[in-house]
Write a structure and sequence with these properties.
single chain; mainly alpha; 3 helices; elongated
C-alpha cells in the first residue's frame, strides 16, 4: 500500500481564485507563505509610488518579509506565528 505524498505548497498551484490556502491543509507554514507573497506584492506597489514616496514603507515591509522568511528557514514556530500576525496587518 503506497501513500501519495502531500505537497505543502500545493495551494500555490491550486485553481482557487485567491490562492489563499483553505481547508485542513491550511497550516501555519502555508498561511505564512501566502502572507509573504501578498506582502511582496505590496512592496512592489510601494516601490512604484513616484518620487520615492513609498521607499520607507517598502523598506519596512522588506525587513518584515526577510525576518518571516528566516523564521521559516529555522522552522521556529513561535517566530513563524509572530511574523504571520505581523504580516496580516500589513496593507
Amino acid at each position: 500500500m503506497t501513500s501519495t505524498p502531500i505537497d505543502p505548497l500545493d495551494f500555490l498551484s491550486s485553481n482557487s481564485s485567491s490562492g489563499k490556502p483553505v481547508g485542513p491543509e491550511a497550516d501555519l507554514l502555508q498561511a505564512l507563505l501566502y502572507e509573504i507573497m501578498r506582502v511582496k506584492e505590496l512592496i512592489a506597489y510601494y516601490e512604484s509610488i513616484p518620487n520615492g514616496g513609498g521607499q520607507l514603507g517598502a523598506s519596512i515591509l522588506n525587513e518584515l518579509v526577510n525576518e518571516a522568511y528566516n523564521s521559516l528557514v529555522s522552522y521556529d514556530m513561535a517566530l513563524m506565528k509572530k511574523y504571520y500576525e505581523l504580516l496580516l496587518s500589513c496593507d
